[in-house]
Amino acid sequence: MQMAETGGDIRLHYRLTGPEGAPALVLSGALGTDLRLWDALIAHLPEGLRVLSYDMRGHGLSTCPEGPYYMGDMVADIAALMDRLEIREAVFLGLSIGGMIAQGLAAERMDLVRALILSGTAAKIATPAIWQARIDELRAGGIDAIAFATMERWFSRRFRAEAPGTVEACLNMLLRQPLAGYIGACEAIAETDLYESTARLRLPTLAIAGSEDGSTPADLVRETAGLIPGARFELMRGAGHLPGIEQPAEYAALIARFLAETGHL
User: Fold this and answer.
1) Which CATH number fits the domain that encloses residue 216?
2) What is the 3-state secondary structure (H, E, C) of the chain?
3) Predicted model pTM
């Protein structure tokens, strides 16, 4: 178990694998998940990478401060962790809220990020009113109140039917997240609009969307990719919000190709 203090009484749980000095790939996950989200993907990635995954604040084994949370704080958390681990010029893969963190980090710390992979994410996701309605539901009924609907948004109907054990494992992962951390992350997403800063980015970018993503529809991901000159958009047919779980080999192949194209392999 690896823990690191990142300032402000925040300790992040992380996993760092691969040879020291190798090209770095940083993985930042989705609302309601922890670093176990990446296990299947990591198993399919090419050798020779230094891979960092972590639990964002309020999730997994990381510190869960009281809210509200702000996107700037979540960006500062991973920047501090990368600084502590001396990781520079990484390819940063952000999924969902992790993709918002990725966009914020790329805008603020060009020394840390040489290329972006934005997966199932956007510069702005939904509206403050929609997020406030979810927060109210969570405060009234806990994560249980939104858990089964979340599985329907996360996974395609076919995957839910064919891999019920994996879906149940992800349901249990969601239910084990701290309620205060989940609500805090919802608050951070609600107040975030990255259109202007993302439109100023000038770095290699791959955007990946699942055709069956019920959380961040493919058109929203495509729109965000369009903000960054030269960004490439890839649609994964039949995949939902978590392609690293649903289609890990195909997801890894897209990532490996992008790493090779950017000279990161």
Assistant:
1) 3.40.50.1820
2) CEEEEEECCEEEEEEEECCCCCCEEEEECCCCCCHHHHHHHHHHCCCCCEEEEECCCCCCCCCCCCCCCCHHHHHHHHHHHHHHCCCCCEEEEEECHHHHHHHHHHHHCCCCEEEEEEECCCCCCCCHHHHHHHHHHHHHHCCHHHHHHHHHHHCCHHHHHHCHHHHHHHHHHHHCCCHHHHHHHHHHHHCCCCHHHHHCCCCCEEEEEECCCCCCCHHHHHHHHCCCCCCEEEEECCCCCCHHHHCHHHHHHHHHHHHHHCCCC
3) 0.97
